[in-house]
Amino acid sequence: MTTQPDYPGRFHLLLASAGRPVQHGWWGSEATARRKLAGWVGEYGAMPGVRITLTDETTGTVLAEWPDRT
């Protein structure tokens, strides 16, 4: 995949606390984004009201959420 200058990456990671965005990241590789997700869970998982979401920006599909909503 070639990334265009105005498009930072296909896989978007969003860290939110109490419904407000705290941190974003974009990667061209799903594997890298999933590793970052695991790292963010370890680093920020204890924040109050935390939600971490990995989305495929091309399809709009949510690939992973933490904590899991099931």
Overview features:
70 residues; 4-stranded antiparallel sheet; 1 helix; 21% helix; globular
Strand content: 35-45%
| Number of helical elements | 1
Between the first and last Cα atoms, what is the distance in angstroms?
32 Å
Structural category is alpha+beta
If you compute it from the alpha carbons, what radius of gyration comes out, rounded to the nearest whole angstrom?
A: 12 Å
The low-confidence runs, each spanning 5 or more residues with pLDDT under 50, are 1-5
Number of E-state strands: 4
> What is the helix/strand order?
EEHEE
Strand order of the largest sheet: 2-1-3-4
Shape: globular
- Main sheet makeup: 4 strands, antiparallel
Report the mean per-residue pLDDT as an integer: 89
Helix content: 10-25%
How many domain regions?
A: 1
Quickly describe the structure.
By secondary structure, this protein is an alpha+beta fold. The protein has one helix at 30-44, and strands at 11-17, 20-27, 50-56, 61-66.
Which helices and strands, and how do they pair?
Layout: E1 11-17, E2 20-27, H1 30-44, E3 50-56, E4 61-66
Antiparallel strand pairs: 1-2, 1-3, 3-4
Polypeptide structure, described:
The protein is α+β, with helices and mostly antiparallel strands. The protein has one domain (11-66). 21% of the residues lie in helices and 40% in strands. It contains 1 helix and 4 strands, in the order E-E-H-E-E. A 4-stranded antiparallel β-sheet has the order 2-1-3-4, with helices on one face. The radius of gyration is 12 Å and the shape is globular. The termini are far apart. Mean pLDDT is 89; it is low at 1-5.
